[in-house]
Structure formats: C-alpha cells, structure tokens
Design brief:
- 44% of the residues lie in helices and 12% in strands.
- It is of the alpha+beta class and 243 residues long.
- It has a domain of 56 residues: 2-Layer Sandwich (Double Stranded RNA Binding Domain).
- The strands form seven sheets. The protein has a two-stranded antiparallel sheet with strand order 1-2. Strands 3-4 form a two-stranded antiparallel sheet.
- β13 and β14 form a beta hairpin.
- The protein is globular and about 60 Å long.
Length: 243
C-alpha cells in the first residue's frame, strides 16, 4: 500500500519507510552511537557508522574503493562489470545505480517530490532542491583555491578552477583536441559526425559513466548527467534501427 508524507507529499511503499522519512522533517535522531555519541534517524545509518569504529570496512577487489555498506559496494562493482540491473519501467534505459534509475523514471512520471518552501518550484531530487535554495539564500559555499571567487555549486568551482590550472581532462578520441568540460566535448563530437554523415559513421559520444568524470556539478547535476546519457543512448538506438 502506497503511503504519502503529509509534509512534502513524497510517497513510500509502506508505512515504516514513511515513518523513517518523517524524521528528516522533525530532526529526530533516536539511534545513538556508543563509541562517539553521534546520533542517527534510523538503525541502518547507525549500523554503517558503527562499522567505521569497529574496522569492518568493505573493499572493492578491483580498485581502492572502500565502504561500510554492502549495498554501496554492490553498486560500485556494477561500474566495473558493466551490469545495469535497474531497468526503467517505461523505456529501454537501464542503470547500474538505483538512485539514477529512480531519477530517470521521474522524467516519465513527472514526479517532483522535493518542493521549495520559499516558492512554488519542485524538483526530481533533493540535490536539485539544495542547489535551488541557494538562489534564495545567496549562499556560495564553494570557494576558489586560487582567487577570492565563490560559487553556489561544486561544478561551477571545478570549471572555474580549471581557468587557473589549464586542466582539460576530456580528450576527443578522433582528433585529440582537449576540453575542460564534458558538454564541450560532446558538442565538439558533432563536428566530426557531420563530416562523416556521408560515410554513415556513427557518432562516438564520451561515456558519461566513466570514473574519470568531473562530478558534473558535484552531486547537484546528477539529474543533468542522467538526461545527457539518456539522450545519447536513445540517439544511438534510433540510428541503429535506421541502419
């Protein structure tokens, strides 16, 4: 039975999950760590935290990634194996990460469970809401290491600092030209596609799931990254069908 939060209208598959969610509104944190007195809203979060004290840390066998969550380790391993078990109910898209899968499905349903309490806007994920709220507060927590500028988003800081460092981590696989942003590379790839249309060569887009990405707007632009990946994969699917 679907249950709705009476404060933000977010829906849950059962009452227990809704009750846990309500604590994010009330600030209630009844689960206290016996090692350091930190408190948490539910037992799962407490369990993860306690493992940091006890040393029960899980390690990826293929890289240096570590976590105290078995579930997070499984999601991470999916990136190595290429497994995408979370399939969209409305289209052919699939994801390695359940959070990206959930955000994508909201593009079909139109669900926007994260509402701003200062205006009438709502968002598909909490990170987009956090970013939006800063337009009201004027908060700019991301400060440049090289000058006095500050930014509201992590990605804005990353892109800005590259003007100081000259870093261009995105390289074209066809002409070796380099770019500071993934979006700039994708736009550049279109120029190669146009020159190869007569030969029927398919466009090769940068893999948005690469571990070498720039975190596109820190956590806040995760939805933007998902939308770009969706467009790229759908475009490739259409071209394959026509060929």
């Amino acid at each position: 039975m679907v249950t709705e939060c009476w404060i933000c209208q977010k829906t849950f598959s059962n009452v227990q999950k809704m009750r846990i969610h309500l604590k994010t509104h009330t600030g209630e944190k009844p689960y206290v760590c016996k090692f350091c007195s930190r408190s948490f809203s539910n037992s799962t979060l407490l369990g993860r935290h306690v493992r940091m004290h006890t040393g029960n840390v899980l390690h990826c066998e293929q890289c240096s990634f570590t976590t105290v969550s078995k579930f997070q380790l499984e999601i991470h391993v999916n990136k190595h194996t290429g497994v995408k078990p979370y399939k969209c109910r409305y289209c052919s898209m699939a994801y390695a990460d359940p959070s990206r899968h959930k955000i994508h499905e909201r593009s079909h349903t139109g669900e926007k469970p994260y509402a701003c309490d200062q205006c009438d806007k709502a968002f598909v994920d909490k990170y987009s809401l956090v970013r939006h709220i800063r337009t009201h507060t004027g908060e700019k927590p991301y400060k440049c290491s090289y000058c006095s500028k500050a930014f509201a988003q992590g990605c804005q800081l990353q892109f800005h600092e590259r003007t100081h460092t000259g870093e261009k981590p995105y390289e074209c696989s066809q002409c070796q030209k380099k770019f500071s942003r993934r979006q700039e590379l994708n736009k550049h790839m279109v120029t190669h596609e146009k020159t190869k249309q007569n030969t029927g060569t398919k466009r090769k887009m940068i893999d948005n799931d690469s571990d070498s990405d720039d975190s596109d707007c820190d956590y806040a632009d995760e939805t933007k990254s998902v939308r770009e990946e969706d467009r790229a994969e759908r475009l490739a699917s259409l071209r394959s069908a026509h060929n």
